[in-house]
Amino acid sequence: MYIIFGSKKNVYKSIPGYGVEIVEKYIYRFYNEIKLEINIAKVIDNKSKIRVVDCVHKNCENLIPVKFFGNFTNIIQAKKEIDSLVCYGNLNTNLEKIL
User: How many domains does the structure of the chain reveal?
Assistant: First the structure.
């Protein structure tokens, strides 16, 4: 199983827990401004969680089970989902692979 999760600079950071291995990482730009770091990860343990830390409010974090981050059978399906979410019409968007 593969999942998709992201982090938004100065807003929130998503940190994979034990049993989640990042296999691809992208930077999403909207009109040349970085908006999101998007990860595709392989889930090794279905009981794993993603820790989401709020960068604005101190001591605010959540542990979210991986089942809430999609369920893709391979990297290609996960990438297609990312493409469908970030590309729309004639908007100036860019997805840069960094890992």
Answer: 1
